[in-house]
Amino acid sequence: MKSQSITIRNTMKSQRPLFLLSLYSSALLFLLQPITAVGYLTPTANDTDFIRTSCGATLYPELCYNSLAGYAYAVQQDPAQLARVAIRVSLSKTRHMASYVSNLSRQADYGAPPRVVAALHDCFTNFDDAVDQIRGSLKEMRRLGSGESLRFQMSNVQTWMSAALTDVDTCTDGFEDAPDGQVKTDVCERVTKVREFTSNALALINSYASKETP
Ligand SMILES: *[C@@H]1O[C@H](CO)[C@@H](O)[C@H](O)[C@H]1NC(C)=O
Ligand SMILES: *[C@@H]1O[C@H](CO)[C@@H](O)[C@H](O)[C@H]1NC(C)=O
């Protein structure tokens, strides 16, 4: 061992320029590393296939794939992680809708038909509740246990995501008696879209739950 390290030191001394050169190239390699690392972030075909196959279990497979394929690398063919990502997308869409309805509601206070004003107020409450339910689901999904605990947690997540869907539906119901118009059409179309993301998240939750807690 000892003689070997001496030999190396002697070799270094006699080949100093070469040693420096290799030092430079190591530094260069180190600098290039972040660029190389990005290459690893590209999902494999299998990661992408996993998203497509899993989305087959949802009611809106195209929307599912288009909204989740970008997370293929992060998901790494883990169904719990896929469900978490889908819940996060659903939360983001629902939160945005709550903010949109809140804004419309504020504007509608000045002059919209009373039934539209009432429907917008109720709709905001529904979406606010939905955001809470989805946020609770995400929190639960982030600390999944095993065995009985997992079964209980998944049942909570299923209950809360279903409740969120009901809240979203209640918003649309509230507009049934409101006069037709731009606000009604606009809100109902947007609600339908947001509902699809939440429905998909629930389907992915259900398929994970049925696999893990048969
Ligand atoms: C993709 O999946 C196939 C079949 O399951 C497997 O043989 C292959 O090694 C996988 N490829 C990668 C890059 O993981
Ligand atoms: C609601 O209004 C606020 C303040 O005007 C604005 O920042 C926000 O982007 C609006 N939200 C939506 C979803 O339009």
Automatic annotation (TrEMBL):
SUPFAM superfamilies documented for this protein? Plant invertase/pectin methylesterase inhibitor
Task: Show the GO MF annotations.
Answer: pectinesterase inhibitor activity
Please state what the protein is called: Pectinesterase inhibitor domain-containing protein
Identify the taxonomic lineage of the organism of origin. Eukaryota, Viridiplantae, Streptophyta, Embryophyta, Tracheophyta
Q: Which InterPro entries match?
A: Invertase/methylesterase_inhib, Pectinesterase_inhib_dom, PME_Inhibitor
All copies of the Pectinesterase inhibitor domain together span 46-204
What keywords appear on the UniProt entry? Signal
Cross-referenced SMART domains = PMEI
